[in-house]
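[step 3/7] inverse_fold.run input=structure_tokens len=249
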């Protein structure tokens, strides 16, 4: 039987989502918790990868298990076993062919910028105290919808079959002394959101004009785009799946 696990995590202590040698990952910690509770080796497959230091308020992964845990509160047990910076929201059965990564319809990220020094924000938002032209940054967002190929925002030497992404929404909002960038797409390239935000910050600071984005995207060259903003301001906040993934009760 195949199950989905929905979770959130503070990424500060982890070298990203995915298992890797000689570094602690969110995937590794969750797999160990599941394997201990279910008394068998459990491997999970995430809906995507987040880099070291990136947070998630909603992540999904799938795992296969042939036993029965209907008589135990699996969410409670997992949360009791997991560290404070990882929380399980739900566990539910899906159709056996459903894959957490390939069946996702869209993913939404937030990037948080603190516009003033805040002692409670420095681990969770990127501090930019210079004035930012939010109107120009939102004008640049509109340009993103005119393109599909975002190779200019992809980490170099990344092996992918296509650099095409269908961006469904992109906009900046002001919340008191915090700016939040929201971006939704069917898929994202490695480091893409942080490179987009870095380019937008340069536009907001007046180092680039919003219309310069046309030339940057057309170049397909990472060096033409802006800097990559720090990971600690980035959050995976929503992953959407078709309603049909769940088993009919």
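[step 3/7] decode complete -> sequence:
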């Amino acid at each position: 039987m195949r199950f989905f696990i929905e979770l959130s995590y503070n990424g500060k202590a982890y070298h990203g989502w995915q298992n890797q040698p000689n570094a602690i990952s969110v995937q590794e910690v969750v797999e160990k918790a599941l394997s201990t509770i279910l008394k068998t080796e459990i491997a999970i497959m995430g809906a995507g990868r987040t880099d070291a230091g990136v947070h998630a308020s909603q992540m999904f992964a799938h795992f296969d298990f042939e036993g029965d845990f209907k008589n135990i509160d699996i969410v409670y047990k997992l949360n009791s076993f997991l560290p404070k910076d990882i929380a399980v929201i739900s566990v539910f059965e899906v159709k056996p062919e459903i894959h957490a990564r390939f069946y996702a319809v869209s993913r939404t990220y937030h990037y948080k910028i603190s516009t003033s020094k805040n002692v409670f924000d420095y681990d969770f938002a990127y501090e930019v105290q210079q004035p930012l032209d939010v109107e120009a940054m939102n004008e640049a967002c509109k340009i993103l919808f005119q393109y599909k190929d975002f190779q200019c925002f992809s980490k170099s030497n990344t092996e992918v079959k296509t650099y095409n992404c269908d961006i469904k929404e992109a906009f900046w909002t002001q919340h008191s002394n915090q700016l939040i960038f929201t971006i939704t797409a069917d898929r994202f390239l490695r480091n893409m959101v942080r490179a987009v935000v870095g380019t937008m910050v340069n536009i907001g600071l007046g180092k680039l004009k919003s219309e310069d984005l046309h030339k940057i995207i057309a170049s397909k060259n990472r060096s033409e785009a802006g800097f990559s903003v720090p990971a600690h301001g980035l959050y995976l906040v929503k992953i959407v799946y078709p309603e049909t993934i769940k088993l009919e009760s």
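[step 4/7] annotate
Residues 91 and 193 are 28 Å apart (CA to CA).
The helical segments are 26-38, 74-81, 134-144, 192-204, 212-219.
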